[in-house]
Amino acid sequence: MTVLMRFSGGFGGGAVLNARNFLTESDAFTQAQEAAFFASIRLRNGTYKTTDHHRLDDLNRLVIDEWRKLGSKPSQIMDVGVSSGISSVEWADALTCAGIEATILATDLCMRGSLVRLLPGYEVLLDRDGKVLQHIVANRPVRWYLNGPRDFLKGTGFVVAALNTLAGVLLPLTNMREGRKDVLLVNPHARDDARLTFAEDDILAPNAAHLRGRFNAIRVSNLLNHGYFNEAQLRGAVGNLRDRLVGAGSFLIVNRTLANGTNHGTLFRLNGANRFETVAKLREGSEIESIVLSA
Ligand SMILES: C[S@@+](CC[C@H](N)C(=O)[O-])C[C@H]1O[C@@H](n2cnc3c(N)ncnc32)[C@H](O)[C@@H]1O
User: Known SUPFAM superfamilies for this protein (predicted)?
Assistant: First the structure.
């Protein structure tokens, strides 16, 4: 992943988006620039906001084909860990084309950040806990996390460490209310789509009452992975997801996109005993299938 990102001067095809550009340039960036921006954002829990346009097209086809065979038309859908929300819009489009009128609640742990200016030419994007998600130095985005000792061989590690220290010193001295700008970390088209609503949500935390027993189908893609969470956390998240479903006949979709771009997902359905059963698989299926089936 690119670290100290290139900026070609002026916002154009060669530029790499930072959080300020994302706020101010709205529709002026390309899909590739948007994808690179989200891939560069790593949250404090170790997950990345990586996503892309048309990433889940084959998963959408599989799910819609299965629902067509079953005669199912879920109307209340939840998409968990949506990042930019672009795959939620694309899912809504695919559902509309298939004659399924659904509203989608798209959620993410980190849906908005705050841009704070610390020095002339130096801003930071903060999460809701006030932790740095991105440094912006003279328009160049710089990550907050280290990628191991290799980083120091290339020199980047020293830049990252120095900026983390500088932000740690300057943030307590900064008047956070003045000049602070909220950044909705959602694709501009997704924001304006009437079929979608957005909310912040932690799938590992106890369920809010208004989410329980509400959805006919829930998708979670590229979040419930062994690489991100341990078994107990994955079991807790699956329990929360089941609790958000309306009951027997409702669906859970769990997917992971590998580095080569292939999707591996499973469509599950809740049975009368409130246990998940496998309806269909895309390629190898979900890597947490055994956890879901034993939940
Ligand atoms: C890799 S992205 C996946 C985006 C999209 N679903 C896709 O498949 O392209 C993972 C997303 O999960 C969000 N996330 C991380 N931890 C979360 C949690 N505990 N609860 C809900 N969302 C979380 C991250 O902010 C990030 O946007």
Answer: S-adenosyl-L-methionine-dependent methyltransferases (SSF53335)
Are 74 and 162 in the same domain?
no
CB of 74 within 6 A of ligand 1: the answer is no
Number of compact structural domains in the chain: 2
Ligand 1 centre distance from Cα of residue 32 (Å)? 19
Residue 46 lies in a domain: no
51 CA from centroid of ligand 1 (Å):
9
Bridge partners (DSSP) listed for residue 123: 117, 136
Q: Show the domain range for 148.
A: 19-40+112-183
Cβ of 258 below 6 Å from ligand 1: no
| 130 and 259 share one domain | no
Supply φ then ψ for residue 196, to 5 degrees. -110, 145
Q: What is the pLDDT of residues 178-228, one digit of tens each?
A: 778 999 999 999 999 999 999 999 999 999 999 999 999 999 999 999 999
